[in-house]
Amino acid sequence: MKEINETPLPGVGIRHDFACDSERRVGVVSHHSGRRDLIVYDRDDPDRVVETVSMSIDEARSLGTLLGGPNIVERLDDLRQQIVGLEIAWLPISPNSPLAGRPLGESEMRTRTGVSIVALLRGETAIPAPGPDDVMLADDVAVVVGTDAGIDEAARILSTARS
Amino acid sequence: MIVASTGTAGLFLELGGVLLGVAVLGRVATRWGLPSVPLYLVAGILIGDGGVVPIVPARDFIQTGAEIGVILLLLLLGLEYSGDELVGALRTGLPAGLVDLVLNFTPGYLAGALLGWDFRAALLLGGITYISSSGIIARLLSDLGSLGNRETPVVLAILVTEDLMMALYLPLMAGLLIGGSALTIGVEIGLAIAVVIVVLGIAVVFGHRLSQLVFSRSDEHLLLTLLGVALIVAGIAERVQASAAVGAFLVGIALSGPAEHAARQLLTPLKDLFAALFFVFFGLQIDPGALPPMLLAAGALAVVTAATKVATGWWSAARAGISPPGRLRAGLTLIARGEFSIVIAGIAVAEGVEADIGPLSAAYVLMLAIGGPLAAKAADPIWRKVIQRSRS
């Protein structure tokens, strides 16, 4: 993690900023009102902001996600690198699958393949750590963790009819 | 006018006319990128004694409105800051705050003394030249996109210290203006300042709990509670000679959390209305004929105290490790004087300590409320020119 400067701005809010390796300084002014300003400092005068982009909280959150904020994908990737043999995959649930529209428990995924479903991605939203009662819908994407062989098996189950 | 403008009708017509006129001026100000305070003053001067269209029936209402305007200005100023922010800003910004006080209070005081004024009038003029306009400057920082600049915390810390100094300065002046023997004045002032410090301490420590007590989900109840509390505390403060404005400021500091947030939204429109009346009323009391003889003195004072603010900003920013262009920006940004100089000048006029102080400070604030933002906007171009000249 980069070292981030935190500076209170009395009457306004708080400013966070840090210098990138590319020698540009960037930051965020968080207003008491909830407004967020994305700020980029001047290349020649490092005290001066050249660009300020004001955002609502929602917009700021979207940008944060794009920049890889608390991102489930990245976390899983870290995990994969730490444990040899562990694989992660994104498996779409085909409308042809008999499991589409059924609760997760019915798939008996863990028992049959050793693979865990750690999240369901549905459009813009995600269901992290779904329970056995959470329903899988057609065109959801299941984020699964397991061995290579297990994942292959899981992919087959999710895309086609039960053999 | 066809209908005789007596009683209520006259009041409505005049008040409506004043508000409408002020609204038009406000739009003009925005169009030209100017702060609205100086234009409100001009409006007041035009409709006051010796002005173009002197108003009569609405005057009493405007006067009362002006007094409420001061309360609301200071209440909202207090709402801007939480107790923690005040403590934090004081901890880091005290040396800069003291340099600011010495450099900018002294010229005003000396000018008063040179003009042969009573020492209390000179002290008031010192206050007028000392205090920058946090309203104009906050707007300026936001408009120029320099809120994120690294010199901005220095500027804000100076403004916070000035506002806190006000909380001590106003009771001090209130005590001096009552007069009496040195002993009674000393006791009065000591008592008032002690009350302010104790209440400030309570506000910082117990603010959260008090805010929960005051808070209500109903906007209506919250508005009435807040106004009631602010006016009562202001009244008590006035009674113990600590100045009503300071009482309101302390109420603002004490409020925090959801109560603070809601208070700001509910009270801002009211503040806009009554603060406008306050600036108009200050202008009302100034005879346009008294302005021209004051222009030279006001201009000289404006030039000197603009320079001392630049020096203050430069020194404080340098101390915070800001490079020269940022130091210049900090200095030029601090030049603007506005609402609080008028608050102090308003006290001077109401107490009648010195006939010239009204017109002098009106001219002075007009110059720096308009000149300050222009100077701040020119900071970077000025710096580029300096660089070019030093290279060639």
Shape field of chain B: globular
Please work out how many helical segments of chain B DSSP would assign.
16
By helix and strand content of chain A, what is the structural category?
A: alpha+beta
Strand portion of chain A, in percent?
25-35%
CATH C-level name of the largest domain in chain A:
Alpha Beta
User: What name goes with the CATH superfamily of the largest domain in chain A?
Assistant: Regulator of K+ conductance, C-terminal domain
Q: What separation lies between the terminal Cα atoms of chain A? A: 48 Å
Shape, principal axes of CA atoms of chain A: elongated
The structural class of chain B is: mainly alpha
User: What is the percentage of strand-forming residues of chain B?
Assistant: under 5%
Keywords for this entry:
heterodimer; A: 163 residues; alpha+beta; Alpha-Beta Plaits; 2 domains; five-stranded antiparallel sheet; four-stranded antiparallel sheet; 4 helices; 9 strands; 23% helix; B: 392 residues; mainly alpha; Na+/H+ antiporter like fold; 16 helices; globular
Write up what this structure looks like.
The complex is a heterodimer of chains A (163) and B (392). Chain A has 2 domains: 5-66; 72-159, Alpha-Beta Plaits (2-Layer Sandwich). Helices cover 23% and strands 34% of the residues of chain A. Chain A is built from 4 helices and 9 strands. Chain A has helices spanning 57-66, 72-82, 109-113, 148-159, and strands spanning 5-9, 13-19, 25-31, 36-41, 49-55, 87-92, 116-122, 125-128, 141-146. In chain A, the strands form 2 sheets. Chain A has a 5-stranded antiparallel β-sheet with strand order 1-2-3-4-5. In chain A, strands 6-9-7-8 form a 4-stranded antiparallel β-sheet, sandwiched between helices. Chain A is elongated. Chain B is an all-alpha fold and 392 residues long. Chain B has one domain (49-391): Na+/H+ antiporter like fold (Up-down Bundle), CATH 1.20.1530.20. Chain B contains 16 helices and no strands. Chain B has helices spanning 7-31, 37-47, 59-80, 83-114, 119-130, 134-143, 152-178, 182-214, 219-239, 244-254, 257-284, 295-319, 324-333, 339-351, 357-377, 379-391. The radius of gyration of chain B is 21 Å and the shape is globular. The N and C termini of chain B lie far apart (67 Å). Residues 1-5 of chain B have low confidence and may be disordered. Chain A binds chain B through residues 7-12, 15, 17, 27, 29, 32, 37, 39, 41, 45-49, 51-52, and chain B through 80-81, 85-86, 88-89, 134, 138, 145-153, 156-157, 159-160, 261, 322-323, 325-326, 329, 380.
